[in-house]
Design brief:
The complex is a heterodimer.
Chain A lengths: L7 H19 L4 H27 L11 E2 L5 E6 L3 E4 H21 L10 H20 L3 H19 L6 H32 L4 H9 L6 H18 L7 H8 L2 H22 L3 H4 L2 H20 L4 H22 L1 H33 L10 H4 L1 H15 L5 H16 L3 H27 L12 H19 L1 H12 L2
Antiparallel strand pairs in A: 1-2, 2-3
Helix pairs in contact in A: 1-2, 1-4, 2-3, 2-4, 3-4, 3-10, 3-14, 4-5, 4-10, 5-6, 5-10, 6-8, 6-9, 8-10, 9-10, 9-13, 10-13, 10-14, 12-13, 12-18, 13-14, 13-17, 13-18, 14-16, 14-17, 14-19, 14-20, 16-18, 16-19, 17-19, 19-20
Chain B lengths: L6 H17 L6 H25 L8 E9 L4 E7 L4 H17 L7 H20 L3 H10 L1 H11 L4 H29 L13 H9 L7 H18 L8 H8 L2 H26 L1 H28 L3 H20 L6 H36 L10 H4 L1 H15 L5 H15 L7 H27 L16 H19 L2 H19 L1
Antiparallel strand pairs in B: 1-2
Helix pairs in contact in B: 1-2, 1-4, 2-3, 2-4, 3-4, 3-11, 3-14, 3-19, 4-5, 4-6, 4-11, 5-7, 6-7, 7-9, 7-10, 8-11, 9-11, 10-13, 11-13, 11-14, 11-20, 12-13, 12-18, 13-14, 13-17, 13-18, 14-16, 14-17, 14-19, 14-20, 16-18, 16-19, 17-18, 17-19
The chains are: A mainly alpha, B mainly alpha.
Chain lengths: ~500, ~525
């Protein structure tokens, strides 16, 4: 039973979420307090994860009397709880990223004007429930648990994206997400049922045993895996399952769009890394490589013609997931490290851009590109901060995004023979310059449309500054980040 | 050296410190921005002169070395040093940056940002020339892009935004391939096991290549070479990647054009000499015949393009395409007999310096006319020599230098490039034919410069400009005279620069041909 300690954050967050829901029935209109409560809860969960992390760093340390074991690949692993939830380095890292992301999203939701009339307790508790779903998803070693975790995440996301019921577009986006989401769950379950047919179990261990037994890859199994990947692909907005993303992001309240662009992606990618650890011997590498290439390219090309920042960021996040998929395709410890490094940096730079957008759109009530017009002449420091984030997104040194890309290229070139994929990634970086710099052009080359002083709300500014700090530090002194990720994987 | 100050880091980041001071100052305080920028550009220049007195030209080994561990997981060091190949370019950079800052005093729009980006650009350029770790080299290579984008895009001419985007896209397209090649070199440099660490240290990589320890052969090696070459060729700009250059030049403000032609283009040729030649000698040799042909096209085609221009600045821009062709021609001589190789490479590096000085001054002179008349049409003028004698004198002198009149700097470097090119050979490929064709370029160059001089300075004065054409002001003289003086000095005594690089180039030739 002391295994439950390992699941403390999930249990604790569930209790908090339900508590907030109940509490709101008795104390309505206390939105600030609910926010704080949510933040504290997430903070505690994050602390718990952190404690795990650091107990890894100390050889022979134990956590509440539970001894970690070292696996042959050097991963630290606590025995899976109930045989279903792995608590290992990989899971902890992505859980940590997820929690940090959600904390930042809560910050971003503070001053959002459309939330003024809405029950914020519900909002916070839905975010916490979504977080619980993500935490379980990352650790799942059993596909059925993964489905349940995904559903918890998805259903919370539907409601969150339709949270502003006064706006038609918000409802529209939510319905699109809902339809696509249920459809994708169906596909996923279909794949899992065949998986069960193959192995007589829904546990990933069966798959690992098969792939390490040295048998030749079986076409039927490849098809099954493709179904499972497709089901997850919808959540990740992987091309060709991405159609919902721009509409949903555009309609959703901006903080929710920010949430959708990072946290679920981190969780689903963490799960994918685990599931596809041996994709080479399973014979699905070509399909994965193709999906990664398509995801980057379609995402970047789609972003080119967008004039609504939220739609642009939706396509941009599709493309960025594509880069991380490249790292997963490259595989091996280099690939896994690259995926982790890039995800870490991406979380911060993307949320930084969202906070920049929110600072302006909260004031002007518009998500259009012209919101940024002439920003350089109104608030130079703010504009430069956004330039740095945009450059990092493109992958220009010496910034975090570049270090991430460097890691990804290294994995592709050093670890696999997919040179073409490296070239496609490189060309995609060039394409992405064009639309990220549309924002920069607006800020520096255009006359201001709005002339009022920019109101820099402290909550949003702190997010932006944090994102900038991480982007710069990860770029200038990448040793810490790279070493950290390497230690986590123990290789 | 007795004192172990991080001199090169100081040199590199001094301008950036100035830029940051400017950034945190009041937006309206224009004089302050200009003064700070000038002061820091001057400090940097003086510091580089100070390094010159300490520089030892008798060795090819890197000097003023600074080396700190930076990214140990990839075995990347913060490694800065100069040798005979980079040091002349460092001097050129500090010198031209100072001149350009003074030439920018006319800027009235958003001076704070302008000088900030300008100083950042100088840091990027200097860093590139002193970095000896490929990773660091790449970082600085990319850092130069951003300020240039803004300098063209905010302070440029009517089509500035398009020009800025085109410049950025072209260069970035090249640099991502450089990145891929760089990583391939990294993995080829060792097994990653202790005692056989992978590295991105350019000097170490060239040693490995020289000893045949670089695990890169056949098609893969050629692809890596082409990735590197693409990035550098776009910057040079070598045909057919030159299309961004005229546009960027025409739109850029005068001082930025000076830097663009004077220093940024040299990053390309420097990169080829610093990275491709010593690290991938086998592939370089195979590529030499193509390089000669490209050089020839650059020279002839660039000259004819310049001939066709009606706009003075476009003409000078295309003349840069032609002049960088001489550079490539000199570089292609590396496999000739030892004299030819040495002449060719010396010519190429000297051409980088002289072209920076001469073309920089030509852009300044064209800027002088543009400031007064707000047009650069060659046909719109005539008889300017009567109104602006001093200007006319400098204009004639620098055009003559550019077309290779003996006694001025351009002649020496072009002569050396041709000399080397003519003696160059590789695997039975006939260099002489292509070099002979290139001579057409010299003739055409002379033709278009003389035609321009005739139409602008001679003949009837166009009454339209009556009263608009005062002669050079003090500030303009301050920027143009030093360049003209150097043009003359290097024309008479090129050894000033040549002696700096002899040993290093001899070593480079040994690495390639060895």
């Amino acid at each position: 039973m002391n295994q439950l300690v390992l699941l403390a954050p999930e249990i604790f967050l569930s209790v908090c979420a339900l508590g907030i829901l109940l509490g709101e029935a008795f104390f309505p209109n206390k939105s600030k307090q609910w926010f704080l409560f949510g933040l504290v809860a997430l903070g505690l969960a994050g602390l718990h994860q952190g404690a795990f992390f650091f107990s890894h760093a100390i050889p022979g340390a134990s956590f509440f009397g539970i001894q970690p074991t070292l696996l042959n690949e050097g991963w630290v692993q606590y025995a899976p709880v109930f045989g279903m939830v792995a608590v290992d380095s990989l899971a902890l890292f992505f859980k940590f990223i997820t929690v940090v992301g959600v904390v930042m999203v809560l910050w971003l939701s503070m001053d959002y004007p459309e939330f003024k009339e809405r029950p914020m307790g519900t909002y916070v508790s839905l975010l916490l429930l979504a977080t619980v779903g993500m935490l379980f998803l990352v650790g799942s070693v059993d596909l059925l648990l993964a489905v349940i975790a995904l559903e918890l995440l998805s259903i919370s996301s539907f409601i969150l994206s339709g949270f502003v019921i006064e706006r038609k577009s918000s409802i529209e986006g939510a319905i699109k997400l809902f339809l696509v989401g249920t459809f994708s769950t169906g596909i996923l379950l279909f794949g899992i049922s065949y998986f069960y047919g193959y192995f007589g179990s829904t546990s990933m261990d069966a798959l690992f045993a098969y792939s390490s037994s040295g048998q030749t890859a079986d076409l039927g199994l490849s098809v099954v895996l493709v179904f499972i990947i497709a089901g997850l692909g919808f959540k990740l907005a992987m091309v060709p399952f991405h159609m919902w993303a721009p509409d949903t992001y555009e309609g959703a309240p901006t903080p929710v769009a920010a949430f959708l662009s990072v946290a679920p992606k981190a969780a689903a990618l963490g799960f994918l890394i685990r599931l596809l650890a041996n994709h080479v011997s399973l014979g699905i590498t070509p399909i994965l490589a193709l999906l990664a290439a398509l995801t980057m390219t379609v995402g970047n090309l789609g972003a080119l013609k967008q004039n609504n920042i939220k739609r642009m960021l939706a396509y941009s996040s599709i493309a960025q997931v594509g880069y991380i998929l490249v790292a997963i395709v490259a595989g091996g410890s280099l690939g896994t490290q690259a995926a982790m490094v890039y995800m870490f940096v991406y979380l911060f730079m993307n949320l930084g851009l969202f906070s920049g957008l929110l600072i302006l759109s909260n004031q002007n009530g518009s998500d259009d590109l012209s919101t940024f017009a002439g920003l350089a002449s109104r608030s130079m420091g703010f504009a430069l901060g956004l330039v740095i984030l945009a450059l990092s997104m493109i992958g220009i040194p010496p910034l975090g995004g570049f270090v991430g890309k460097f890691a990804i290229f290294s994995a592709v070139i050093g670890n696999s023979h997919l040179l073409w994929l490296g070239v496609v990634t490189a060309i995609n970086s060039v394409i992405s310059f064009y639309y990220y710099f549309k924002i920069v052009q607006q800020m520096f080359f255009r006359e201001p449309v709005h002339t009022a002083r920019v109101q820099l709300s402290p909550a949003l500014m702190s997010c932006l500054v944090l994102a900038l700090g991480i982007t710069l530090v990860a770029g200038l002194l990448p040793n810490q980040l790279l070493g950290w990720v390497r230690n986590i994987l123990g290789s | 050296m007795a004192v172990n100050l991080p001199l090169l880091s100081l040199l590199t980041f001094l301008p950036l410190i100035g830029g940051l001071i400017i950034m945190f100052s009041d937006k309206e305080n224009r004089a302050f921005h200009k003064n700070i920028a000038t002061a820091f550009a001057l400090f940097t220049f003086v510091l580089s002169l100070g390094l010159l007195t300490k520089f030892d030209a008798s060795t090819h080994l890197p000097q003023f070395v600074e080396r700190y561990q930076w990214i140990s997981s990839f075995n990347i060091d913060y490694y800065m040093a100069v040798d005979g190949l980079s040091f002349p370019l460092v001097l050129l950079t500090t010198f031209l940056s100072l001149i350009s800052v003074v030439a920018s005093f006319g800027i009235e729009k958003r001076t704070k940002e302008y000088f900030f980006w300008f100083m950042m650009l100088e840091t990027g350029m200097l860093g590139l020339f002193v970095a000896l770790d490929f990773f660091l080299f790449y970082v600085f290579w990319e850092i130069t892009l951003v300020p240039m984008y803004f300098l063209i895009g905010v302070w440029g001419g009517p089509k500035r935004e398009y020009a800025a985007v085109k410049f950025f896209l072209f260069t970035l397209f090249g640099s991502v391939f450089m990145l891929l090649s760089m990583i391939a070199l990294y993995f080829a440099s060792g097994s990653g096991l202790p005692g056989n660490e992978r590295t991105l240290d350019l000097i170490r990589l060239s040693e490995l290549a020289h000893n045949g320890q670089l695990q890169l052969v056949g098609t893969a090696a050629m692809l890596v070479f082409l990735g590197l070459y693409l990035a550098f060729a776009i910057k040079v700009p070598a045909f057919p990647f030159h299309t961004w250059l005229p546009l960027a030049h025409v739109e850029a403000p005068t001082a930025v054009s000076v830097i663009l032609a004077g220093v940024l283009l040299k990053m390309g040729t420097y990169g080829i000499l610093r990275v491709c030649y010593p690290i991938m000698p086998e592939q370089t040799k195979l590529f030499l015949p193509i390089l000669v042909v490209i050089a020839c096209i650059n020279i002839v085609y660039g000259a004819f393009c310049a001939m066709a221009q009606k706009d003075m600045k476009r003409m000078v821009a295309y003349s840069s395409v032609n002049h960088m062709g001489y550079c490539l021609l000199g570089m292609a001589a590396v496999m000739g007999n030892s004299n030819a190789a040495h002449a060719g490479l010396s010519g190429a590096v000297l051409q980088m310096v002289t072209h920076g000085i001469i073309t920089g001054s030509l852009f300044l002179l064209v800027g002088v006319i543009y400031d007064r008349a707000h047009t650069r049409e060659i046909d719109a003028f005539g008889g300017l020599a009567t109104k602006m004698p001093i200007f006319a004198g400098f204009m004639i002198m620098q055009c003559m230098a550019s077309l290779g009149l003996p006694g001025l700097a351009g002649f020496i470097s072009e002569f050396l490039c041709f000399l080397g090119g003519f003696g160059g050979s590789f695997g039975g490929f006939n260099f002489k034919i292509w070099v002979s064709i290139s001579v057409i370029g010299i003739v055409v160059t002379a033709a278009f410069f003389l035609r321009m001089l005739k139409l602008v300075l001679m003949g009837e004065f166009n009454a339209k400009w009556e009263g608009h054409m005062p002669d050079l002001t003090t500030r303009e003289l301050v920027t143009i005279v030093p360049l003209a003086v150097f043009t003359l000095v290097l024309g008479i005594y090129p050894a000033l620069v040549l002696r700096l690089m002899d040993t290093t180039l001899a070593q480079l030739i040994k690495l390639v041909a060895g």
